[in-house]
Structure to design on (237 residues):
């Protein structure tokens, strides 16, 4: 469960988050959508303790990310691809992350298998395709068997088989009681996987509800997105 409460963030005289608040619930896949520059990454960075809010707070299972005792065992995240250095192999990288977080080494083989990278585990990350890098980022997020997954653009670079695979993986995580928050620009994928939607535009939440609630008045999710994020926009709360 993730709770975002009244986040305000200024950069100089600009307000990039203006009282952003929503929840991502256990057992649900929540999609976080918005045009470029809307404030998605700013919100996720605050949630993950990478930046500070000027007002408001973001809680993971009732605590701030920075106060979690074993963060990777509570929340797994992927913000910018794999996060691994080009010169390392997937196995090196995951082993190092596991060691530095008190996670058993047997989890490394498990997640490599889970994301389909076992055969490439000893290849340097610099030689990986975009999709393989995404799979490694996901392996890292899954390493600590966290309840919560926060994924920025997880289908970016995946081929159709990879997209189907990740959809199944995230669905299974939510169906097992986990919380999934993902950002995406791919409306088709979001419509296929999300239970709940949060749409942000200009630093404000303009829609928050179930996929059905948010899209009810529109033909498609894409129509809803443009109506809710354009100037003179609608709102659904
Ligand atoms: N460190 C910073 N200094 C100044 N402005 C910033 C900084 N970080 C973000 N911004 C601004 O805050 C606004 C929100 O940016 P953010 O990266 O959160 O958007 P986003 O919704 O993630 O966009 P995208 O879909 O392009 O990733 C943008 O106008 C951006 O230029």
């Amino acid at each position: 469960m993730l709770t975002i409460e009244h986040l305000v963030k200024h950069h100089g005289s600009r307000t990039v988050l203006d009282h952003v608040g929503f929840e991502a619930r256990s057992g649900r896949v929540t999609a976080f959508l918005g045009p470029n520059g809307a404030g998605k990454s700013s919100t996720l960075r605050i949630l993950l303790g990478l930046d500070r809010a000027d007002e408001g707070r973001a809680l993971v299972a009732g605590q701030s990310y920075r106060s979690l005792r074993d963060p990777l065992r509570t929340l797994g995240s992927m913000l910018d691809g794999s996060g691994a250095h080009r010169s390392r192999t997937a196995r090196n990288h995951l082993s190092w992350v596991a060691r530095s977080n008190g996670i058993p080494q047997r989890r490394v083989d498990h997640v490599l298998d889970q994301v389909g990278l076992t055969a490439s585990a000893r290849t340097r990350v610099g030689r990986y395709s975009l999709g393989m890098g995404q799979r490694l980022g996901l392996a890292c997020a899954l390493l600590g068997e966290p309840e919560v997954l926060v994924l920025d653009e997880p289908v970016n670079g995946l081929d159709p088989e990879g997209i189907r695979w990740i959809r199944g993986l995230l669905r299974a995580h939510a169906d097992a009681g986990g919380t999934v928050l993902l950002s995406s620009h791919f409306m088709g994928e979001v419509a296929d996987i999300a239970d709940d939607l949060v749409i942000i535009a200009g630093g404000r939440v303009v829609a928050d509800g179930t996929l059905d609630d948010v899209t009810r008045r529109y033909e498609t999710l894409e129509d809803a997105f443009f109506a809710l994020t354009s100037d003179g926009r609608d709102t659904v709360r």
Notes: The chain has nine helices and nine strands.
